[in-house]
Write a structure and sequence with these properties.
Elements lengths: L2 H14 L13 H9 L5 E6 L2 H12 L17 E3 L4 E6 L4 H6 L5 E5 H7 L4 E5 L5 E7 L4 H5 L4 E5 L2 H12 L3 E5 L6 H4 L5 E6 L3 H5 L3 E9 L1 E5 L1 H6 L1 H19 L2
Parallel strand pairs: 1-3, 1-4, 7-8, 7-9
Antiparallel strand pairs: 2-3, 4-11, 5-11, 6-9, 6-10
């Protein structure tokens, strides 16, 4: 089962159950529906990427009745948070670790950026685009570097995302490049001559502009995604699918669909 088929099945469930009380509760009492449908002896565990992503995720979850009040305490030293009523557990981790927790079953569900999913390449099901945390993965550099890309010349590419960069140049552009992995300010690399271009996330582009750099090519759009452990998707399909469907409904509602 791949993520395309999962999403197709979820869409079919939503269409076929348009009259179901899960979607047409006149009191909009979603939390009660979750109490009825998701309570189980086994806990479902969520891994959330730390920072703004986790904050946005918790806001979205609250809209469908999934709450975890403990996580709102910014001073807590707890590592694992529990909603006993819904049999759900939550923990925060660094973004790159989320797919690892999910692949190995330490978490059933993870929320993480698409960039992390692509870079880590873990065996998980990507089941839902949550629609926030939007940005782009781009090839950037000085304007004159555009010609090097157009003529497929051998160049050096500095990046925090070597796997994404390698895949883009090898399998989409068919251009020979040397990938240089950096951890700090990527924009510095072409300025000091370490590389001709960079592969990095672009949100507003203001940092690029301030340093005389421009977006030369777009690799892919990025946003927050939900990933699911492959075994959990089979063993806990009903519970997980109910969560995905409820989130989809809320996302569509926010878009006015």
């Amino acid at each position: 089962m791949n993520s395309h088929n999962i999403n197709k099945n979820i869409d079919n469930c939503i269409n076929n159950n348009a009259n179901n009380e899960f979607y047409n509760d006149s009191n909009n009492n979603v939390n009660n529906n979750f109490n009825d449908n998701l309570s189980n002896d086994r806990y479902l565990t969520f891994a959330l990427g730390k920072g703004r992503l986790a904050d946005k995720t918790l806001e979205l979850f609250e809209k469908i009745g999934i709450k975890c009040e403990e996580m709102k305490d910014k001073h807590t030293r707890k590592l694992l948070f529990v909603n006993e009523e819904l049999k759900l557990k939550f923990f925060l981790s660094k973004g790159p670790d989320v797919p690892t927790y999910v692949e190995y079953g330490a978490a059933d569900i993870g929320i993480v950026g698409k960039d992390t999913i692509l870079e880590e390449g873990r065996n998980v099901y990507e089941v839902l685009d949550l629609g926030y945390g939007k940005c782009r993965m781009c090839i950037c550099g000085p304007k004159e570097a555009e010609e090097l890309l157009q003529h497929h010349e051998q160049i050096r590419v500095a990046t925090k995302y070597p796997h994404i960069a390698k895949d883009y140049f090898n399998n989409q552009k068919y251009q020979t490049v040397e990938i240089i992995k950096l951890n700090g300010s990527i924009e510095l690399a072409p300025i000091v001559g370490l590389s001709e271009v960079i592969c990095d996330i672009v949100e507003t582009g203001s940092t690029l502009k301030e340093n005389g750099l421009v977006v030369l090519e777009e690799v892919c759009p990025l946003s927050a995604r939900m990933v699911v452990n492959q075994v959990s998707m089979k063993m806990e399909n009903e519970r997980i699918t109910k969560i995905i469907k409820a989130l989809k409904e809320e996302i569509y509602k926010g878009k006015g669909i």
